[in-house]
Amino acid sequence: MKKKKTPEVWICGIVSVFAFLLLWQIGCSVSELGKMIPGPITVTGAVLKSMVSRSIGGHTLWIHIGYSLLRVLTGYILGSALGVVVGLAMGWNRVVEAFITPIFRLIRPIPPIAWIPISILWFGLGFQAKVFLIVLASFCNVTLNAWAGAKSVDPQLIGAAKMLGASKSQIFFTIVMPASVPQIFAGLQVAMSSSWTTVLAAEMVRSTEGLGWMIVTGQTNLDMTQILVGIVAIGVVGFILVAVMRRMEDILCRWNKGKR
Asked: Is the pTM higher than 0.70?
């Protein structure tokens, strides 16, 4: 059974965050650290200002977040859908598994960032190149988990279904797919984090908007405050995306909670 977080856990988490911010502010106020990095009060003010003012490349912070999310969600949906199909096919059909496994094992260890030069040659410097990298990042994680989920289905369930006269398609859609859902969602969560990281790296290479672009531009202009605004936005949006995925899993896989 999945344990719920107690109030003590939430309190400890909040206290730890405030303690970190307090130490950061004190360090910037009483030491040389303040010459290298702005304090949390300054960064918070910059974040709030950038939300309502077009102070970063002619766009508000919301616009930069929107561009990054659009790229992530497009590539994530395409890569995840393809990963589910390929992973389930590999776990269900031995011929498909034997054919795809060598290629998959060769591609999987390659980080998406390593594909940046190829993506530029194939798709240029625009939207398609960034989506291609995100598709790769999400595809491998989802495929691996869907494959493992389909392979781990209890053979006795499949045997019982065959004895009752179920066809292969009925066994696949009524037994294999439902049993694979929890592991697929685990892969979807990992894929979301990987996709978010990948799009930021892609935006750092060549872009005119987005959170990755904000950080690179801040580095070029020696604007540490802008860099930290981008980093804070990355952390907050990433946290929200993961929380949404976990909530979706709790709702859609409610039947599986008792097995944890």
From this structure: yes
